[in-house]
Write a structure and sequence with these properties.
The chain has 340 residues and is α/β, with parallel strands linked by helices. The chain has two domains: 140 residues, NAD(P)-binding Rossmann-like Domain (Rossmann fold, 3-Layer(aba) Sandwich); 185 residues, Dihydrodipicolinate Reductase, domain 2 (2-Layer Sandwich). 29% of the residues lie in helices and 24% in strands. The protein contains eight helices and 14 strands. It has a six-stranded parallel sheet, with helices on both faces. Strand 12, helix 7 and strand 13 form a beta-alpha-beta unit. Helix 3 crosses helix 6 and helix 3 crosses helix 8.
């Protein structure tokens, strides 16, 4: 059986990656509809080796008869159109932050909590987690099953693609400008990003954390375990694609490096690359375009009881967004949710 699938936000970096991923994984589609704002209507996007999709106006699209909607248009747009699609019978998988913490909306990483979508959600919406949360909970899941995670301290090193195409263009233009003595113009970020790092992603909250840091804490608890405590510092770095994370984990019982390595080595969606020599670890430039989350620098944390430290890196446009959304759709099909 094949399905009519709408990709909302199709002209953005994540939307294009979703369309690419659907083709690469052979998702059973009868038709893919590329949707974006009216100003993008008529643009063309490649689907597979020999098909071209013409972008249609989201505001004018009738979702009746569309079985799946993969949304990545920004939270404000999803807030309007995701419920409209769901009301027409389209099951929405939303990649924005709009519905993640809403009761009755599953927040899903298929390798971690697939049972959350064993049946169709009443609201007709499934949420895709934040990119930085996805790669962290993938790493935490096999360790949590082994020894139960109590507390996580994480610092992220997030690429500019997480802020969209315009942010990528800004990094490129600032980098080029430095070599010709053009003063950097910061429009997408609060400060110049070229040759710099910015410890600020999303808006600030009353307690001094940014919303990105809050997301990592509350989403981890919703996906994995409500008792896990998380403190995050999220930093934007001058990298085009790929998020890195330095993760310090405290467990409820002792866990050895060997136990952790075995658990990580056998876990779905993970690749352990850690040889403890020069270059024996993964970096963003090497993993761009890869599906897995790569784990390196695994070692004991001697500053806390039952502690481990590690480094993980993943392509934020793929597993951190598009791939996870398509994997949710695949899990939906396996569970027969669309037929329910």
């Amino acid at each position: 059986m094949s399905y009519k699938v709408a990709v909302v936000g199709a002209t953005g970096a994540v939307g294009r990656e979703i369309i690419k991923t659907l083709a690469e994984r052979g998702f059973p589609v009868s038709e893919v509809v590329a949707l974006a704002s009216g100003r993008s209507a008529g643009a063309e996007i490649s689907f597979g080796p020999d098909k071209v999709l013409k972008v249609r106006d989201l505001d004018r699209y009738d979702f009746a008869g569309t079985q799946l909607g993969l949304f990545s248009p920004g939270a404000a747009v999803s807030a309007v159109h995701a419920p409209r699609a769901a009301a027409a019978g389209c099951l929405v998988i939303d990649n924005t932050s709009q519905f993640r913490m809403e009761p009755g909306v599953p927040l899903v990483v298929p390798e971690v909590n697939p049972l959350a979508i064993a049946k169709r959600p009443k609201k007709g919406i499934i949420a895709n987690p934040n990119c930085s949360t996805i790669q962290m909970v993938l790493v935490l899941k096999p360790l949590h099953d082994l020894a139960k995670v109590r507390r996580v301290v994480v610092a992220t090193y997030q690429s500019v693609s997480g802020a969209g195409k315009e942010a990528m263009d800004e990094l490129w233009s600032q980098t080029r400008g430095i070599f010709v003595n053009d003063p950097p113009l910061a429009e997408q970020f609060t400060k110049p990003i070229a040759f710099n790092v910015i410890p600020h992603i999303d808006s600030f909250m009353d307690d001094g954390a940014t919303k990105e840091e809050w997301k990592m804490a509350v989403e981890t608890r919703k996906i994995l375990d409500p008792d896990i405590q998380v403190i995050a510092t999220c930093v934007r770095v001058p990298v085009m694609i790929g998020h890195g994370e330095a993760v310090h984990v405290e467990f409820e019982r002792p866990i050895t490096e060997r136990e952790a390595r075995e658990a990580l080595r056998g876990a779905a969606g993970l690749t352990l690359l850690d040889t403890r020599d020069d270059g024996g670890y993964a970096t963003p430039i090497e993993i761009a375009g890869e599906d897995a989350v790569f784990v390196s620098r695994l070692r004991r944390d001697p500053t806390v009881a039952n502690g481990l430290a590690l480094w993980c890196v993943a392509d934020n446009l793929r597993k951190g967004a598009a791939l996870n959304a398509v994997q949710i759709a695949e899990e939906v099909l396996r569970n027969g949710v669309l037929a329910a």
